[in-house]
Amino acid sequence: MTQESWLFAWIGAADHQAAEADDRERPGPIASALLAHERFDRVVLLTVDAH
């Protein structure tokens, strides 16, 4: 039986700030998790609609 690797993450202010800064040396927390892991079978990103 093969285990799947899932990432569940809340998109937060640090992720938005890192995306806006476009600084490849300091990615946000979600990007860091994606880069640190060879592969995820599923990625679930959570956010809230602030409108």
UniProtKB/TrEMBL annotation:
Domain of life of the native organism: Bacteria
Record-given protein name: Sigma-54 factor interaction domain-containing protein
Upper taxonomic lineage: Bacteria, Pseudomonadati, Pseudomonadota, Betaproteobacteria, Rhodocyclales
